[in-house]
Amino acid sequence: MIDQIYRKAVLTVSGQKFVEDLVRSRGFGLAQRFVAGEDSASAIRAVQELEKDGILGNLDLLGEFVASPERANEFAEKVLNLLDEAHAAGLTPYVSVKLSSVGQGQTVNGEDLGLANARRIVGRAKAYGGFVCLDMEDHPRVDVTLGQFRTLVNEFGNAHVGTVLQSYLYRTEADRDSLDDLHPNLRIVKGAYLEPETVAMPDKADVDASYRRLVYAQMKAGNYVNVATHDESIIEDVKHFVLSHGIERDRFEFQMLYGVRRDLQRELAAQGYRVRAYIPYGRDWYPYFSRRIAERPANVMFVLRGMLRG
Ligand SMILES: Cc1cc2nc3c(=O)[nH]c(=O)nc-3n(C[C@H](O)[C@H](O)[C@H](O)COP(=O)(O)OP(=O)(O)OC[C@H]3O[C@@H](n4cnc5c(N)ncnc54)[C@H](O)[C@@H]3O)c2cc1C
């Protein structure tokens, strides 16, 4: 409960325009602990660096809801360029996309622009043998995102597109069951948005229990799972679960955020687990940065110290 109060307070304060202006005025320096850079070249370099430690990358061009079709199409073009650049750099491109940044909810020529752009992005990724994960945003977007995910799997197969389920939502276990026929590749997370108690569990213990159930159900169904958490007790439990249920190591991976628990990322990779870091980059880093700060009280001190240093 204290966690929730803290998170709510930080997300409310960081949503204030003057706080955003103040943090942004200090420039990218503050964000660089969690964000790989402001351009795609920096992000690709970060993937190459991590690969030296046996850690894979998941590139994310930062950007959320865009209000005009022109901006959405521009954003989609940048993601397509990213796929081209990653491929040209010798990587198998793996990217994450927020559908709100490519036009979800805007209708153009009778079709949702987010879906139309996602189709182009998944098609390009597939041509390079790559993968696109549709990030999950706040709860009003869950139905439409899962519907669009289903459409994309039907069109491209489940080897090139996946999505995310958030264990803090009451609805999520039923959502996972409803996707089972697709044998979906799912990233399981706890959830990062400020959600009302009517839709999201307020207690961390419940969110954690739901997290474990989702991962285990996904594994028992024989589907690929991205165990996206820094929670060591969950990671330990998952290691035991896979051993006791004979789940092969190529059926799941651990995923963590760039700049968070690098020690644990390296340790798991050295133990022979597949590990992937989520590598955000881009100029629109503020909302992502705020959510990371909201996850851990020590991170607020890190920001305040950085601001005092100027
Ligand atoms: C690869 C990946 C992709 C994600 N994609 C999405 C998404 O699409 N939609 C969405 O809603 N959420 C997403 N998230 C965020 C997620 O929902 C959580 O907010 C975030 O992962 C923190 O929860 P946790 O599972 O690490 O557990 P927690 O219980 O929050 O944390 C466990 C421990 O991890 C460490 N830790 C956690 N966060 C931080 C931090 N920011 N800085 C330093 N230490 C930290 C702390 O030691 C903490 O005690 C993603 C997370 C990951 C790892």
Q: What is the quaternary state of this protein?
A: single chain
Small molecules in complex: flavin-adenine dinucleotide
Q: Count the E strands.
A: 10
CATH architectural designation: Alpha-Beta Barrel
Q: Give the averaged pLDDT, no decimals.
A: 92
Helix and strand layout, with pairings?
Blueprint: H1 2-14, H2 17-25, H3 40-51, E1 56-61, H4 69-88, E2 94-97, E3 107-108, E4 111-112, H5 113-127, E5 131-134, H6 142-156, E6 161-166, H7 172-179, E7 186-189, H8 204-220, E8 225-228, H9 232-245, E9 252-257, H10 262-270, E10 275-281, H11 286-294, H12 297-309
Helix pairs in contact: 1-11, 4-5, 8-9
The structure holds flavin-adenine dinucleotide.
Residues 135-136, 164, 166, 187, 189-193, 228-231, 255-257, 260-261, 278, 292, 295-296, 299 line the site of flavin-adenine dinucleotide.
Using brief descriptors, characterize the structure shown.
310 residues; 8-stranded parallel barrel; two-stranded antiparallel ribbon; 12 helices; binds flavin-adenine dinucleotide; Proline_oxidase; proline dehydrogenase; flavoprotein; nucleotide-binding; PRODH_bac_arc
Short description:
With 310 residues, the protein is an alpha/beta fold. Helices cover 50% and strands 15% of the residues.
